[in-house]
Amino acid sequence: MSERRDQGGMVGSHLSGFMQEGAHILPIRVYYEDTDFSARVYHASYLRFMERGRTELLRAVEVAQSNLHASMDGLAFVVRKMNIDFLGGAVMDDVLTIVTRPKEMRGASMTLAQEVRRGDEVLVMADVMVAAVRRGRAVRIPDELRAALSTSR
């Protein structure tokens, strides 16, 4: 059996993300459940991968979404808009890298630039606008999160 490895030689499902040059880097292994049953990654799986990247970016700046929700009266982030470009495809057992970086911060929303890479090859590019909401209404992004994401650039 051969295993696919990323350029750093990382293998396995124990991969964890890290910050690098203002971006969050999250390695993800492609499993059978991520495919369209022909070993190729199903397009909606990339959305899940990028969601994990956005969540891990917040954790990397020490802001857990569950803590925001619990301590700020139900604050949550929802995807408002996504512009996505599928440039290539991954297959089962690939190790992909999800790169997430803050691009623009507004009052109640922020845009994140995301890429899904296999080695140096960019497979998917997306700009994702998320909005902060509480009880279904847009609210200003908390200053602590705004500051944390600004210093990560």
Task: Please characterize this protein's 3D structure.
- 27% of the residues are buried.
- Strands 1, 2, 3, 4, 5, 6 and 7 form a seven-stranded antiparallel β-sheet that branches.
- The protein is built from three helices and seven strands; from the N terminus they run E-E-H-H-E-E-E-E-E-H.
- The radius of gyration is 16 Å and the shape is globular.
- Helices cover 22% and strands 38% of the residues.
- It has one domain (18-151): Thiol Ester Dehydrase, Chain A (Roll).
- Mean pLDDT is 87; it is low at 1-15.
- The chain has helices spanning 43-60, 65-71, 143-151; strands spanning 18-20, 23-29, 76-86, 95-105, 109-118, 121-134, 137-138.
- The N and C termini lie far apart (41 Å).
- A hairpin with a 2-residue loop joins strand 5 (109-118) and strand 6.
- The protein has 153 residues and is α+β, with helices and mostly antiparallel strands.
Main features:
Thiol Ester Dehydrase, Chain A; alpha+beta; 153 residues; 3 helices; seven-stranded antiparallel beta sheet; disordered N terminus; 22% helix; 7 strands
So how many helices? 3
Give the integer mean of the pLDDT values: 87
CATH architecture: Roll
User: What is the name of the CATH superfamily?
Assistant: Hotdog Thioesterase
Summarize the amount of helix as a percent range: 10-25%
N- to C-terminal separation? 41 Å
Largest sheet: 7 strands, antiparallel
Unreliable runs: 1-15
Radius of gyration: 16 Å
Q: Count the beta strands.
A: 7
Oligomer: single chain
Shape: globular
Query: How is the CATH topology named?
Result: Thiol Ester Dehydrase, Chain A
Quote the beta fraction: 35-45%
Text of the CATH class: Alpha Beta
Order of helices and strands: EEHHEEEEEH
